[in-house]
Design goal:
The chain is mainly alpha-helical. It has one domain: Ferritin, core subunit, four-helix bundle (Ferritin, Up-down Bundle). Helix content is about 70%, strand content about 5%. A hairpin with a 2-residue loop joins strand 1 (about 1-5) and strand 2. Helix 4 runs antiparallel to helix 5 (about 135-169). The longest helix has about 35 residues, at about 135-169.
């Protein structure tokens, strides 16, 4: 991995496959944290179930990316790297339980719109990473991650559309 500084901006490029998987593991852990905190805060069963589903999806992705990292054989060799210290800021706005109520409350529409925002931010992060990846294996890995996150986004959009249609009846 190559880290350069342009003024106050840090540019990270040329990820190896193992570094791409490490970033993926970190992002999935952040997603699990985010969706689990919301699920645990919300009292409405319908909203709680939505965030439980997405926490489960992130957990499946975490298991997948951890296994892919293990397959590289570089997990132990590169145990500590700069990747471990990158703050993706994708799920940054919700670091404590009190803000969950401020952001979501018990409003399903707001909860779904926030989910859409979070998935868009994850996709934007991975696209920024993709634009700086120099090796083919790393590019393919990041592209696969983007596709997974786009699937989450599509599910949130469908849920919001269904909710708004029912609401307008």
């Amino acid at each position: 991995m190559k880290v350069t500084y342009q003024g106050d901006k840090t540019v990270i490029s040329d990820f190896s496959i193992s570094e791409a998987y490490k970033i993926s593991v970190r992002m999935e852990r952040e997603g699990i944290y985010y969706y689990s905190r919301l699920r645990d805060y919300i009292r409405t069963p319908e909203i709680k179930e939505i965030f439980n589903y997405f926490a489960g999806e992130e957990t499946k992705h975490l298991v997948y990316f951890k296994s892919k990292l293990a397959e590289t054989g570089l997990e132990e060799i590169e145990k500590e790297s700069i990747v471990d210290h990158i703050d993706t800021k994708v799920f940054d706005f919700l670091k404590n339980l009190e803000s969950a109520g401020d952001v979501i409350g018990e409003n399903l529409e707001k909860a779904l719109k926030t989910g859409i925002l979070m998935e868009k931010q994850a996709i934007a992060f991975y696209r920024a990473v993709l634009s700086n990846v120099k090796n083919t294996g790393g590019s393919e890995t990041i592209l696969n991650i983007i596709m997974e996150e786009m699937g989450h986004l599509e599910k949130f959009i469908m849920l919001l559309k269904d909710y708004l249609e029912k609401k307008s009846l």
